[in-house]
Design the sequence.
């Protein structure tokens, strides 16, 4: 398949094209420089654990931070993006779940442990970043309502997002790290 | 008795239970009404969803 045609590059900004190209060619730069090195030559260097139902690469803290840094750019409109491709996504079903990130400073180990738990329950082993005006927020797509609510309650989350109905489901938390 | 959290969002969700119904309703709402929903919504995905229906939003 012609990659450039598949990506519809004519409709993308230069920044977006660069981001996607870097992601595809990654393994060095994208495998985590945020205080924590990934496996050289591989994406998703934190590895281990998880066992998500999907087979996408598992982004590390470094890759999450890199995606957040890029999504802060005004080249990216508000929306939900794949962390690995920085392409917008819109699910028809399942739930979006996250954990407290604002004002928190997790060690690499704490962060890896936390996201591995989310990957374990995620539908696709992928992570996402939701951008609305300010700081993009990392989240995960979970197929099961029961799993989504369990994760949200464990991590003191205010709500989860139901893609099918467009509902914000109150999970009773404060959104802060407890 | 404690007050209900996010009353505007919950009322909107009760009134329009499906995504299609919400989209139809949002497309008829003013930017001010949508801004009120955004302000009341604790969920980033929800804010993104509502904001797409503001008149100045990109398609």
Sequence:
């Amino acid at each position: 398949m012609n990659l450039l045609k598949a990506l519809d590059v004519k409709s993308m900004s230069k920044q977006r094209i660069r981001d996607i190209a870097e992601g595809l060619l990654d393994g060095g730069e994208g495998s985590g420089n945020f205080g924590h090195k990934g496996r050289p030559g591989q994406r998703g260097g934190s590895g281990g654990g998880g066992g998500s139902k999907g087979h996408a690469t598992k982004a590390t803290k470094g890759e999450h931070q890199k995606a957040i840094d890029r999504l802060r750019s005004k080249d990216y409109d508000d929306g939900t993006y794949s962390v690995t491709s920085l392409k917008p996504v819109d699910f028809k079903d399942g739930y979006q779940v996250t954990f407290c990130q604002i004002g928190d400073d997790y060690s690499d180990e704490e962060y890896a442990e936390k996201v591995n738990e989310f990957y374990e329950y995620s539908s696709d082993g992928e992570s996402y970043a939701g951008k609305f005006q300010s700081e993009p927020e990392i989240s995960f797509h979970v197929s099961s309502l029961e799993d989504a609510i369990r994760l949200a309650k464990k991590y003191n989350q205010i709500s989860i997002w139901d893609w099918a109905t467009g509902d914000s489901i109150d999970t009773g938390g404060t959104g802060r790290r407890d | 008795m404690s007050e209900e959290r996010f009353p505007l969002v919950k009322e909107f969700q009760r009134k329009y239970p499906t995504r299609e119904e919400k989209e139809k309703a949002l497309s008829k709402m003013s930017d001010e009404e949508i801004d009120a929903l955004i302000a009341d919504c604790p969920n980033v995905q929800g804010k993104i969803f509502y904001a797409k229906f503001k008149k100045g939003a990109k398609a």
In short: The helical segments of chain B are 7-15, 19-28, 31-40, 44-51. The CA atoms of residues 31 and 56 of chain B lie 9 Å apart.
